[in-house]
Specification:
Elements (H helix, E strand, L loop, with lengths): L16 H14 L6 H18 L6 H19 L9 E6 L5 H12 L5 E6 L8 H8 L15 H6 L2 E5 L12 E4 L10 H22 L9
Parallel strand pairs: 1-2, 1-3, 3-4
Amino acid sequence: MVDVTGRSAMPGLTYPEAYLKRLAVELSHKYAGIFGVETVERYVLESYTALLRTSTVQAHLAANTVRFVTDRLTALGQAKGAIDSVNPEVLFVCEQNAGRSQMAAVLTNALSGGAVHVRSAGSAPASTMNPAVVTAIAELGLDLSQAFPKPLTDDVVQAADLVITMGCGDACPVYPGKRYQDWELIDPAGLPLEEVRDVRDQIITNVKVMLIQLGVDVKELRA
């Protein structure tokens, strides 16, 4: 694993430079034969910088960078046909990626029993998750405690079989051959918990319809 403390920093490099360099080396091995070292290094730096601009919880920045850059590289590999995509790929996009799209992603995973691979992103990501959203999802026995807002990138759009937008305007790029849907949902930002629950329940209904359209069995939520 990467030493995110920087205590074993490479000679001549300071943290976070040493951390990013070490992460790039590890991911270059993981994606050997798929991406060159230069591509991996660029994705690592871009991903870290993007999260650094929005994240206010620096303690989680290193771990979130690992997850973000790995997801982006996997998506890029899928889009290029270098990595197989076994399950349908669905991308949820809202403005802040702190509420609607995060709820849709975790609910799709639960209701599909993992038969759909989901990603989420924001056109203008917030610094933290909406706490009322985290609570509303926890009431169903699902966990958003490790989720974090992520910026929208072209690679995750290209990897998606279905892109579902939620109030992000024209920010989502359109690629020929991709399926797009728009869900008109109230933004839960600033809403009291009882109203966030209403948004959550509407998303559950929408997700069930989407899964039927994809030919995926709908599972029961187990609180």
